[in-house]
Every structure is written in structure tokens, then in C-alpha cells.
Design a protein that fits this description.
The complex is a heterodimer of chains A (270) and B (223). In chain A, helix 3 packs antiparallel against helix 4, helix 3 packs across helix 5 and helix 9 packs across helix 10. Chain A has 270 residues and is an all-alpha fold. The radius of gyration of chain A is 36 Å and the shape is elongated. Chain B has seven helices and six strands. In chain B, strand 5, helix 4 and strand 6 form a beta-alpha-beta unit. The relative contact order of chain B is 0.17. The chains are: A mainly alpha (270), B alpha/beta (223). At the A-B interface, helix 1, helix 4, helix 5, helix 7 and helix 8 of A face strand 1, helix 1, strand 3 and helix 7 of B.
Chain lengths: 270, 223
């Protein structure tokens, strides 16, 4: 049988067998996978404050309105938990990796090297905090076809994911280019720093709104003044016209009747 | 590891698959080196490849097909501890330094120690002095580098990704050496050495696939 056909058949078999076995062998009670999942999840959550700059991820900051370029990669890695067959889980890892290359490509002109890729993958894992990540990786390593895991593109991506997790587990101040004190501060006040940042942002937004409100008020006041002066000048013109219409030939009576006339026009207007 | 695929029955065609890890500091030009080899491009505006982290190349050496997978590894200091995860099952390693940068050569020495510790003599090592187009600014002497390579059982090469010098030779030579290693193991296996050991180190015959399935915990038998 040709090699390709054998490989295809093995893949079909794997998918068939593992889709059915998934619910019994995934994160089995006999191992401490569940504990490790929770530990990893907590670890990632405690590192929420890590920025792309600290990880030296190729990143172009295009303002808060623009979406994170790594968002498609984050979505892909989260999807991994929903798949059953190891090869389908690996597909998610590959999809995530290709999306990372796209994102790196949009931030950098040269092709991505391993350092770029790995730092971006670490960032993506930290943002995504993928559900049951440890269990999913163990499941793929235990039940996936060995050749898919060790060689080829998929193998490369999976190896890098293992590296990313190892890095996150051992991450310390030096790895992020921080002093030990700064690192401790971030770890202790991770949540507080986040909330503080948010408060700062809200305050800035409020300030901006106040500024715009003042501007609107100012404009309204000037419009009001303009309207008033326009109404006055129109009134004056109307009086003049009326006076000239009623008494075209008696300039001597102009002042008295002009006052009368203005009174009538004023009443009409109010 | 290397896979030796043979068709059952008629015309047996062999195909080797080798994994080669690429090591070196950030600025030694390892990315340029592989892009030159796999795409024949250097700092080209027309490079369409998004990435130079995982590249493959198909070769034909003395009538045998060889699939080469080149794994770039993250070389920054902060990723140092992750090395062993990358090295697993690799048949060869290319350790690149910049001839104008003494530090990058010291880093190569560290990697050699680590690789030998982990994979013993199974792995073919190539130490590569890149950027020989900057000969005037050379800071690592040829004698020192070649002497060191010999002392650790590695081969030394001089390359320039910019001028496309020495790169074809480097990869061709490495492939030949990996083939020799794989063939030697195959003979060992033929002499009754542990099948599992040999399979793990590199050579595997595709018709033995059920064995791989057993190792993976599957329960089906095919063949």
C-alpha cells in the first residue's frame, strides 16, 4: 500500500476511534490533569497584566478602536477544547499559528522568525487562557498519531505550544525585562492595576465629554446672541419701512408716529 | 525522527525524513540563511513567505528522496530553558554564529554542550560561521572555530547568505551525514538491535505502522 494511503487511513482510524473514546479517556480520573488544568488557568489569570511590549511581541498600537491583530489566533486556540479527535485539536493549533504569522506579518516587514512566533504565541495563550489547556495537550500527546506530532508543520506548532506553556509556568521578572520588585508588585496588584487603569480610562473619557459639552454650550450662547442681534436689526428695518410707507411725505412727524408704530410691531411680535 | 518509507511488494522506494534544528542568536542571520536556501532570496522585497520558522526542502541524493524539515528555534536568552523541547527527535543541528561577533560564537559553544548532553552522538552537528562577506570585520578566527568544531565532533562551514556562498554545500553535506547515520542504525536494527530503540532514534519502516499505533495507545491493527 502506498505510504500516503496508509497515513490517510491511520488518520481516519484515529478520528473514528478517538471521537468515540474521548469522553472516557480525556482528562481521566486516574491522572491529576484536572488539578494541573486549574493550576495553569490560575497561573495565566495571575499574569493578566503582561503586555505585548514586555513579551517583545511584534505589535503596532493603532489605538483602542482597532481590534487586536492577534484576535483570530486567540479564537482559534480557544476552539481547541471543543474538538474531540486529536487531529482536530491539532488543526486548531495550526490555525492559531497561521493566524499568528498573519498578524506578525501585518506588524513587521520581514518574515517571522522563531523568536517572533514564540513570543506572539505566549501572548495569545495569555490572552486566551484556553479551557483545559494542559488536558488538551496531554490528550493530543498521548493519543495523537506520533508522526503528526513529531515531524511536519503541525509538529512544529505543537512543540512551540509546549514551549509557550513551559515559559508561562516558569515566567519570572528577568524573562519580562522587569526588576524583581516590579514583578512582585504586578503579581500582587495584578487585578488592582487593571482596575486602576480602567478608572483612569473612564476619567479621561469623562474629561473629554465635559470639554465637548462646554464647547457646545459656548456655541449655543453665541448662536443665541447672533439671533438676538438679528431680531433687533430686523425690527429696526421693519419700523423704518413702515414709517416710510404710512407717512411718505411728512418727515416732521416721524419721531412720534415712529414710536407708535414700533409699539404695534412689538406687540405683534410678542 | 527520520522515517524510512518503503512500499511493500514491488518497486521499493525509500524516502528519508529528517528534522534539523536551527540555533543561533537573533542577529547572526539564521533566518536569511534558511530563506536563501529554501527560497533563494536575500532581504528581498518580494519575499512572499510570511514566516521563516518552519521551512521544508525536498532533495534527491544518490537516487534517494530526502525530505528536510528545518525548525527555527527561539534563540533569545529568555527562551534558553526551552531548548530541550525543540531538540527532541532531531537528526541534525545547524548552529550559526556571526564571524564578526565573538559573543555569538560563545553562545554556539553552550548549545553544543546542551545538544551533546541530550542527544549524544546521534545528532549531526554543523557549526556555521555566517557573514563571511564582512571578512574585514572578522572577530572569530578561522583556526579557533575549526579547531573547536573538530574537538566536539562537529563540522565547520563558512557561509554568506548575502552572497549565497557555502549554503548549498552545508545542507547537502549535512543530509549525506544524516543519511549515513540513519543507514548505520538500520544495519544495527537488522543485526537484532532493539526495534523500539531504533524507531525512536530515527529509522522507521512505514509498514511497521501498527507498531506506532501501539505506542500511541491505539488498539487497531492495520497492514
Amino acid at each position: 500500500m502506498p505510504e500516503e494511503q496508509v497515513e490517510q487511513m491511520m488518520e481516519h482510524m484515529e478520528k473514528l476511534v478517538m471521537t468515540r473514546l474521548h469522553k472516557w479517556v480525556f482528562c481521566h480520573d486516574s491522572c491529576d490533569d484536572e488539578q494541573k488544568d486549574l493550576a495553569l488557568q490560575r497561573r495565566i489569570r495571575s499574569l493578566k497584566w503582561v503586555t505585548p511590549q514586555m513579551l517583545r511581541v511584534p505589535f503596532t498600537d493603532r489605538g483602542p478602536e482597532d481590534a487586536d491583530p492577534y484576535l483570530p489566533a486567540i479564537t482559534a486556540i480557544i476552539e481547541m477544547d471543543a474538538k474531540r479527535a486529536p487531529q482536530d485539536k491539532l488543526c486548531c493549533v495550526s490555525k492559531c499559528s497561521r493566524n499568528i504569522f498573519q498578524a506578525v506579518g501585518s506588524c513587521k516587514s520581514e518574515p517571522a522568525c522563531a523568536d517572533d512566533f514564540l513570543s506572539a504565541l505566549i501572548y495569545v495563550v495569555l490572552c486566551a487562557n484556553p479551557p483545559r489547556l494542559h488536558s488538551n495537550m496531554q490528550y493530543v500527546a498521548r493519543f495523537g498519531l506520533p508522526h503528526a506530532l513529531r515531524t511536519g508543520e503541525t509538529g512544529y506548532y505543537f512543540t512551540n505550544l509546549s514551549c509557550a506553556v513551559a515559559f508561562i509556568e516558569k515566567l519570572d521578572a528577568a524573562a519580562l525585562g522587569l526588576s524583581p520588585d516590579e514583578f512582585r508588585g504586578f503579581m500582587q496588584g495584578g487585578g488592582a492595576t487593571g482596575a486602576l487603569g480602567q478608572a483612569q480610562q473612564v476619567r479621561q473619557q469623562l474629561e473629554e465629554l465635559r470639554r465637548r459639552q462646554e464647547h457646545v454650550m459656548e456655541q449655543a450662547r453665541s448662536l443665541q446672541a447672533q439671533l438676538r442681534s438679528w431680531a433687533e436689526s430686523t425690527q429696526t428695518r421693519a419700523d423704518e419701512v413702515a414709517y416710510l410707507t404710512f407717512f411718505p411725505s411728512s418727515p416732521l412727524r416721524r419721531v412720534d408716529d415712529g414710536a407708535d408704530c414700533r409699539g404695534v410691531a412689538g406687540r405683534q411680535e410678542h | 525522527g527520520a522515517r524510512l518509507g518503503g512500499g511493500s511488494g514491488c518497486c521499493v522506494s525509500f524516502c528519508y525524513s529528517f528534522k534539523v534544528v536551527l540555533l543561533g542568536e537573533g542577529c547572526v542571520g539564521k533566518t536569511s540563511l534558511v530563506l536563501r536556501y529554501c527560497e533563494n532570496k536575500f532581504n528581498d522585497k518580494h519575499i512572499t513567505t510570511l514566516q521563516a520558522s518552519f521551512l521544508t526542502k525536498k532533495l534527491n541524493i544518490t537516487g534517494k528522496r530526502v525530505n528536510l524539515a528545518i525548525w527555527d528555534t527561539a534563540g533569545q536568552e529568555r527562551f534558553h530553558a526551552l531548548g530541550p523541547i525543540y531538540y527532541r527527535d532531531s537528526n541534525g543541528a545547524i548552529l550559526v554564529y556571526d564571524v564578526t561577533d565573538e559573543d555569538s560564537f560563545q553562545k554556539v559553544k553552550n548549545w553544543v554542550k546542551e545538544l551533546r548532553k541530550m542527544l549524544g552522538n546521534e545528532i549531526c552537528l554543523c557549526i556555521v560561521g555566517n557573514k563571511i562577506d564582512l571578512e574585514k570585520e572578522r572577530h572569530v578566527s578561522v583556526e579557533e572555530a575549526e579547531g573547536y568544531a573538530e574537538s566536539v565532533g562537529a563540522k565547520h562551514y563558512h557561509t554568506s547568505a548575502k552572497l549565497n556562498k557555502g549554503i548549498e554545500e552545508l545542507f547537502l553535506d549535512l543530509c549525506k551525514r544524516m543519511m549515513e547515520t540513519a543507514q548505520a542504525e538500520e544495519r544495527m536494527k537488522g543485526n537484532g538491535a532493539s526495534q523500539f530503540g531504533a524507531a525512536r532514534r530515527g529509522v522507521q519502516i512505514v509498514d511497521d505502522e501498527p507498531q506506532a499505533a501501539t505506542a500511541a495507545g491505539g488498539c487497531c491493527s492495520s497492514g
